[in-house]
Amino acid sequence: MLRLANATAGNTNEVIHLEKCFDIGKTAGGHVLGGLEVFTKAEVVIGDATDLLYEREIDHCKGFPELLTRRRLEDDFT
Q1: Taking the model in full, what pTM does it have?
Q2: Taking a C-beta distance cutoff of 8 angstroms, is the pair 68, 57 a contact?
Q3: Which is nearest to 62 in space by CA: 2, 3, 6, 19?
Q4: Residues whose CB is less than 8 angstroms from the CB of residue 5 and which lie 6 or more positions away in sequence, other chains included
Q5: Quick one: pLDDT at residue 36?
Q6: Scanning 12, 20, 34, 39, which has the fewest C-beta atoms within 10 Å of its C-beta?
Q7: Residue 13: per-residue pLDDT
């Protein structure tokens, strides 16, 4: 799966977009139908991003921690 977007705890009437990547280099996507319950999510970073810092911060609109990224400062390396 590449992306499952537009899903929040409060937008149950909005569509959710799903994209899937296949091993032959093609992608397919569309709308996820209603009536599904999401129990967990994954945020995956593939690569060497040593200049970035990943942190979780509460999103007060959604009510749960979201993954944030920022550039590392010199102090972050100590």
Answers
A1: 0.39
A2: yes
A3: 6
A4: 16, 17
A5: 67
A6: 39
A7: 58
Comparing CA positions, the residue from 58, 46, 55 lying closest to residue 1 is 46
- 17 Cβ contact list (under 8 Å, min separation 6): 3, 4, 5, 6, 29, 30, 31, 32
Strand partners, 22: none
Q: Which residue in the block uniquely carries the two structure tokens 């959710």?
A: 16
- Domain containing 73 equals 3-77
The two three-digit tokens of residue 36, written as one number: 């599904």
pLDDT single digits (tens) 9-62? 565 556 666 777 777 778 787 777 767 676 766 666 677 778 888 888 888 887
State the total domains in the chain: 1
